[in-house]
Every structure is written in C-alpha cells, then in structure tokens.
Amino acid sequence: MKKTGKHNIGLKPFLLGLVFLFVGWASWAQDAKTVNFELKLSKETLGINERLQVEFAMNHDGDNFQPPSFEGFRVVMGPSQSIQRSYINGKRHYSKTYSYVLAPQAQGTQTIGQASITIKGQVYKSVPKTVKVTAAVDKPSDQVTADDFARDNLHLVAEVSDARPYLNQAISVVYKLYFSQYVNVSHFNPLDNPTYNNFWSQDIPVKQYKAANGTYDGKAYRYVILKRVVLYPQKTGKLELEPLSLDVTVDVPTNKRDFFGSRIYTQANKTVSAGRRTINVKALPEAGKPAGFTGAVGDFDFLVTTSKTHLNASESLQAKVTVSGKGNLKLFELPSPSFPASLEVYEPEFDEKIRTTISGMDGKVSNSYTIVPSYRGKYPIPPINFSYFNPKTQKYHTIDSQELLVNVVEGPLASGANTTAATVASGTNKQIVNSGKNFNFLKTATQLQPLGTTYFFGSKSYWLWLLLPLLLIPLAIIFRKKREAIAQDVVGNKVKKANKLAKRFLSEAKKNMGQKEQFYDALHRALHNYLKAKLKIETTEFSKDKITDLLNEKEVSENHITAFISLLQNCEMARYSPFSDVQMHQDYDKASDVISQMDKQL
Predict the structure, then answer these.
(1) Helix, strand, coil share (%) of the chain residues, nearest 5
(2) pTM flag (> 0.90)
(3) How many folded domains does the chain comprise?
C-alpha cells in the first residue's frame, strides 16, 4: 500500500502538467482563430435632419452578408465595401467593411438590428445597437451635399519626421492627400506652395501618384503622396512651415442611378490645406564643442590622402581632403591643411558627389590641392582634424588625420635650406629661393615672316552681318502672329490637351494591368478626356445620357455607343466589384477598338 501511494504522488504532477499544456494550446489556438464581426456607428445621438454612418467590420473574409432591415431609416448610400490587407512584424492583418449612410425617418429611439455573415462555414451575427433620434438641429453635421461630403472625406496632411530637430539636422516633410472610399479624386492643382524660410530645402520628386491603404482619425482611408521635401533648419527656435494648399476636384456619389442601376456621381471642387506646422529647432550644445567645429551635423568619416609620396622636382601631386557620410554635406567648410613653405600649392578644386533622399544628404565632398615641389628633400604635411556633431549620440566627435611625408628624390637643392624638415606655412603664398642653376639662355635668332593684311570693314562678312538683323525682322513678325493665333485658339488648345491626356491615361491603364483600381481609374480618365476632345463637353456635362445624345447627333453607330457606355459602366462597377485580369485585358482591347472606330466616324 505504501508503494502504491508513492506511485500516485509521482503521477499527479505529470497529469497536472499535461492538463495545463492542453489548456494553453487550446487557448492559443482559439486566439489564433478568433473572429471579430461588429457593428460601428458614427454617432449614437443625431437630429432627424442628420445622417448616420453604419459600418459592419470583420477581421476575416466572409460570404453571404445579410444586412439588417434598417427599420426607421432610409438607406441614402450603400452598401460600400472596402478591404485592407497588411503585414506588421511578420503577421498578416485583414479587415473587411460594409458601410451604409442612413437617414432617420422618425424621432425616438431606433435600433440597428443584427447583421450576419458566414465565415469559414460558421454564421456570425453582430450585436444590435440603439440610436436616439432627436428633433431637427439648426446646423446638421452630416447633411449629404456634394461640397460637405467632399469636405468630410478629403484631408491633406503634412507628416513631419521630427518636430524637434537640432540645428542643421535633416527632417522630412511628406504631404499626403487622404480620401475615403466614397469619393474619387479626379485631379488637383496646387494653389499655394510653401517657401520654407529659414530652411535649406530640396524637393524629392514624386514620379508617379499611387494610392495606398492607410488610416486617418482612426478610420480606413486611401492616400496619395503628393510632395516630399527634405529640410535642414538654419536657425534655432520656433520656425513655421507654410501650408500647402490644393484645389481638388472629386467625384461624389448622389442618390440617383443610371439606366444600368449604377450610382451617378457628381463633381465637386474642394480647397484643402495641410495647415501650418511649427518646428522647434534646438541649438547645438556648447558643452564639449571643439575649437575647429565648422557646423557639420550628421555621421561622417574624414580622410587626408596624397596621390603619390615619391616624386621628382617640378612634378606634381594631389593632396585630397575628403569628408564622407550622411548629414549636411553642403552646409559646412572643409578643414584646410598646412603645407611646407617650399612647396608651391595651388587653390583647391572642390568636388561633391551627393545623393539627396527623403532621409537627407548622403555622399562625400572633397578639396583637391595641386602641389609642385621645386627642390629635393622631404616635406612633412602635419595632421589636421575634422569635428562634427552626431544627433543620434548627441555628442561631438573629432577625427584626426595622419601625418603625410612627401619625398622629392631628384631635383636641385635649395641653397641654405634644410631638406629633412621643411618649414610649414599656413597659407599658399611662399617665398621660394632659386639657385643659379635654374636659369638658361634663350635663343634670340628668329625666322619671322610678315602676314597679309586683311580688313573686316567693307568685306562680304561685314555687309552680311550688317543686313542679317533686317532680314530676320519679317521672320520674327510671322512667328509672333503664329504664336498669337495658337494662343487665341482656346478650344483647339483644350482639344489638343485632352487628346494628349487620353493617350497618356490609356497608356497608364496598360501599365497598371492586373491592378484593378489603378487600371480602371486610368481607363476612366482616358475615356473622359477622349470625349472632352471630340465632343467638346466640360466635366460638368459628363453624364451617360448627355454622351448618348451627343454621339447620336454625330451619327456614331449604335453598337459603338453601347460599347462605350458599357466601358464607362465597368469603370464605375470596378470600385465595388471584383474584376479578373482577363476582364481587364478585354476592357482594354475593347477601349482601344472603340476609340479607334469612333475616331473614324467623328
């Protein structure tokens, strides 16, 4: 019995460990497969003349979405679907949202019922939420008008990498235009570009505008990087960045639908501004500042070299002072070495190989000195140092060069000069003692012949240059009239510009084949500009009924009109529906063919 008791005592800890291990594994597996499906409301209390935004969000892809009946509300817009995928620290994140805009129909407490969705074969339901609808308010916050809708769904932001830099430390400013899934940005024009006073600045060109997923004010948005600039503050204290302002044309959805049931969009112009940003520039610390500090801020290497160490008199060599690394390479002075007085030194040649990216300057700068010795001997070039401030370590660093020795092996000896330790001078002006051996007699016998005398005045060249300005006057008058005629042809210039835009966007659509949103956005712009060129219609008149009527007036065949309207329909449906690569290729070929055939008829 005692033996059996001891056996039970040893088995219990083992079984207990297995239980904890199983529970921990089950908990981890449950967390890894946790599905979230929730209802989000823009507000819980609103006036009867306001609008309510409702979102059903999930973290896994699902099918068979069933919205609630929205009793007591009228659906103004929706459903709109958005999907976001991202990888953070090696982990996959997924988000899918169905959005609605609702208008209340009666006062009182209303309930947004359950919605359901099927995820991995299992049905999930959202938790109902109540909304209190009050009497009409004086200033509705969610009145769905084109301008207000554009204002609430369009934001320009200036993102600053560091708002508290040191003097001469690089910072970057990235201007992003955020827009929600409900609007489409047609084009934009800059109204006011910042001048960046008290900063050394350089723009980093944005070669192509690409939309990407992001968040603004905690909500899912799309954004486009419009402008990037690198700044080096040249003054301490509070410095203001002037705002960037844009005039943006956006496509805003309306409550109307076309013949095919797709929502009709209207255009609105909105002026957005990034707002003023304040940069608090810190002064470089005085404690530990080296005596030879010239304002270098960053992380650098320093080197002093010579092209050769052994040479003959009257030959030349180059001594190069180089600073390389990352920092304000264009904004400080290189240290100057001291050369022996017996060496003839010319003014340095400055060279820079600098690449400026969004993180700042990177590369090297150098001064190259040409040195010509006149006499035989050994000439030491004393070491020099270079000091800089590193913002990462917040300390000053000093790098010392090595002493260099120039050995002139052949040549005349300087009379009374010490050839083993030449005198060092601080400047390049030196008094050189010459020996008598340096002088030679020059030959005085010459064989000179007189040259024929020619006069420019009265020659053919003289009269040609005299009359040439008079001959150019008629050509200048004809050229000026031609330019004025082109400038006055406003309609013709618009047509030419629209034709170029149509070809450009059609080419851009071909490049973005396989990327649904970019492809159909470029295709839509190409079709739009083609019509603008051929039918001479403005963007405010851009509706399918108007297009159909104008094409019929131009006697375009019914098949081509139907095909063109179908392409526009596909461009609009692509925002909300999945389109395959095959469909994109078919739409591109169809667009090229339709434009070609219509161009012949028009």
Answers:
(1) 25, 40, 35
(2) no
(3) 4
